[in-house]
Amino acid sequence: MTPTTLTAQPFPEGFLWGGATAANQLEGAWNVDGKGPSIQDVMPHGIMTPPTDEPTPDNLKLEGIDFYHRYRDDIALFAEMGFTVFRFSIAWSRIFPQGDETEPNEAGLAFYDRVLDECEKHGMEPLVTISHYETPLHLAKAYDGWTNRELIGCYERYARTLFERYGQRVKYWLTFNEINSVLHAPLMSGGIWTPKKQLTKTQLYQAIHNELVASASATKIAREVAPQAKIGCMILAMPTYPLTPDPDDVWAARLAEHDSYAFGDIHVRGAYPGYYLRKLREEGIELEITDADREVLTNTVDFVSFSYYMSVCETADPAKRIVGEGNLLGGAKNPTLPVSEWGWAIDPVGLRIVLNDFWERWQLPLFIVENGLGAADVLTEIDGVPTVDDGYRTAYLREHLVQVREAIADGVDLLGYTWWGPIDLVSASTAQLSKRYGFIYVDRNDDGSGTLERYRKKSFYDYQEIIASNGACL
User: Fold this and answer.
1) Which GO terms describe its molecular function (predicted)?
2) 257 is an active site residue
């Protein structure tokens, strides 16, 4: 069977359909009810520019789309689409404003109680990310983020607080968002205040080790506090194809994929893989790894979740290595694929490849927790009703879900699918709202103007139909 041979096999009964968000991109209310500042509050222009020392008024994330005050209405819109799962993150600095306190902020905890109330009201399974690119600013500036082992204890206290408070209400948890992205975005992903160009490899890989230990420790805590919970890791999936059949290109692609595989291998197998240890040796990276760390790492996950937006190519020939625009993890541009308005390769078959690859490698249930298309939508009117005629988004959605269906037919055990940004929110990479992902249009512009009113796009009804038919209409 080739990747273009399609089957009509349905999605499994109980498959979870929904959408995914992050606190720092939609909540707003950055200093309300005792919340402290996070690294996102000093990154007004996304990951490509240096941070400011303090939050700036032109930072869209400070207000987001005001989910903090509109969550009931927004979750009701998700329910109208038929969501059976809603992925959201908890803002660490809402619970521990500085990050290193011993007692949590009750007002922050109460907010997420209310969010869970709405999920339960609408029969939606919550999927909660503990840390989604939102390290408390104090931990970044005072400790240099995850380069410092002290953050392990801070994170353990935070995770235990969440499990004790919500462990009976939340079945699915993710420890860190796209944990492998720290390799390329050390501030956003690892809260590392040292500028990227000044960061040594030893500092970076020690930060990675510290995060991995913290992640495994959170799994251990969950087993004690909320044994019925399912704990997953979350990685940024970006399949890497050799640019040519040259064996050197094939190996270059393999080495690039090792950088992401390692994070999954450690979460699933509980130890560092040989290829990773070789990399550390050959690059002269000496880490502080204790016997206690090695023991903690044996607390492995229940499932593997991932984001998927694009694929890339790789080559051993520097002259041919033309990096595609917008590719966070690098890689050469694939000349055979179309790209989005932001330069991301559109590759539905790549999603099937990832699903088969991860399933064969780890033999654990998988969960697609991000997939989506950012586009410059235009609000218009159809029959007097404000909307967006976004057939391009529906086409992207359907083409990717067809490949998901194929992967399930291939034998992949898949828990569910959450579209990234079911409602327009602020882009993490560019801090724009004009890069819209949602099925719901939010009237807000990059200059901060707009009413924040919500409007259903045409894709809202298309996803509603897909969910209602459990994918049978694809």
Assistant:
1) beta-glucosidase activity
2) no
